[in-house]
Amino acid sequence: MKIITNKTKNLFSLFFGIVILGCSNNNEVPIGSEEYISEINEWHANRIESLKKETGWLNLVGLFWLDEGENSFGSANTNKIIFPENAPKKIGTIIKTDSILKFICEPEIIVKSDGVQVKDLELNIDLSGNPTILENGSFRWFIIKRGDKYGIRLRDLDAPLLSEFKSIERFVVNENWKINAKFVPYEKPKEIEVPTILGTVEKELSPGKIEFNFENKNYSLEPVAAGKNLFVIFADLTSGEETYGAGRFLYVTAPDSNNNLILDFNKAYNPPCAFTKYATCPLPPEGNKLRIKITAGEKNYGEGH
User: Fold this and answer.
1) Residues 234 and 175 in one domain
2) Which of 37, 147, 153, 224 has the fewest CB atoms inside 10 Å of its own CB, making it the most exposed?
3) In which order are the strands placed within the sheet that holds 60-65?
4) Same structural domain for residues 246 and 276?
C-alpha cells in the first residue's frame, strides 16, 4: 500500500494552487497554504466579476467636461458634446449654472432615471453619494466632479471591452507578501498631496503611517481613510515594467487595538486608468513610492493608458 506523507500532501496543495491560479505565464509554484492560495484566487475571481458589472470600469466609453451654460449632447457633430455614433443624434442638453446642473431631454427621445421616463431633471453629482443616473438604450451617464470641473461619465453596457476582456495577469501567489505591519497614528491627521492623472492635485488626510519590514529592510506607506479601513496608493520598482506605470491600489483592514495590521500585497490591484482612458485616477503620493520590487498582485493590463 502506498503511504501518502505530509510532504506529498503539501506538494499536491501547491500544484493544485497552480491549476486554479490560471493567471501566470510561467511555471512558478505558488507559495503558501492551500487555504491561502484559494482565498487569493477567490478574491481575484470576484475582482474580475466586479470589473464586468454595470458599475465596473470596463464599460466606460466617454468623459466629457462641461462648460458653463448649455451643453448639448448626442452623436451628431453639431452637439457641443459628441457621444459615440450608436447614440441618438441629439439626446438633450445639460445646463450648468455654477454648481447647479439640469438635464433637459429632446422631445422625441426617451431617457429614464431609476426606470422612470424624465423630460427635465436637476442632477445630483457623484460626490453626493447618490448620483442621478440617466439611461437611453445601452447608455448610462451621470455627472462627476473633479476639483472645480464637472463632467459627464458615459457607460455603454455593450462596450467592446466587455467582450474582449478575459482576465488580468498576476504574479504567482506568494504568502510571503502577506506582511505583518504596524500602524503609527499621527497626533492629528496629516494633509498629504495626492496627484491625479488629470494633472491636478487633491488634498487628502492621512491618519498615520504604515510601517513594515521586508527582507530586513524597513519601509513605510501613508494611507488615507476608507470608512473604518485604510486605502493605499503606491508605486514600486515594478511600476512601468511588470505593473501599471501609475501605481497600484491596496485596501488594508483597520489596525487592531495594538495598532497591528496586515499588508497583503497579493491583493494589490490596478487602478481604473489601467483599463480605460476615461477614468480619473489618483496617483501615488511622494511618500508611497517604494524602493523595492513588489512582485505580488496584479500586473499591467494590455498597454495601459
Assistant:
1) yes
2) 147
3) 60-65, 149-156, 139-146, 134-136, 112-113, 116-117
4) yes
Specify whether 68 is located in the same domain as 216: no
CA-closest candidate to residue 126, choices 92, 150, 95, 98: 150
Query: Based on the domain organization, do 173 and 282 belong to the same domain?
Result: yes
CB 135 within 8 A of CB 112: yes
CATH of the domain at 136: 2.60.200.20
Total number of domains in the chain: 2
The tens place of each residue's pLDDT in the chain, 305 residues long, gives: 334 444 444 444 444 443 344 444 456 899 999 999 999 999 999 999 999 999 999 999 999 999 999 999 999 999 999 999 999 999 999 999 999 999 999 999 999 999 999 999 999 999 999 999 999 999 999 999 998 999 999 999 999 999 889 899 999 999 999 999 999 999 999 999 999 998 999 999 999 999 999 999 999 999 999 999 999 999 999 999 999 999 999 999 999 999 999 999 999 999 999 999 999 999 999 999 999 999 999 999 975 55
CA–CA distance, 100 with 93 (Å, rounded to integer): 14
The amino acid at residue 229 is: N
- In terms of domains, do 212 and 279 share one? yes
Domain check: are 200 and 172 in the same one?
Answer: yes
Euclidean distance between CA atoms 73 and 189, whole angstroms: 42
Are 267 and 43 in contact by the 8 Å Cβ rule? The answer is yes
Contacts of 191 (CB under 8 A, 6+ apart): 203, 204, 205, 206
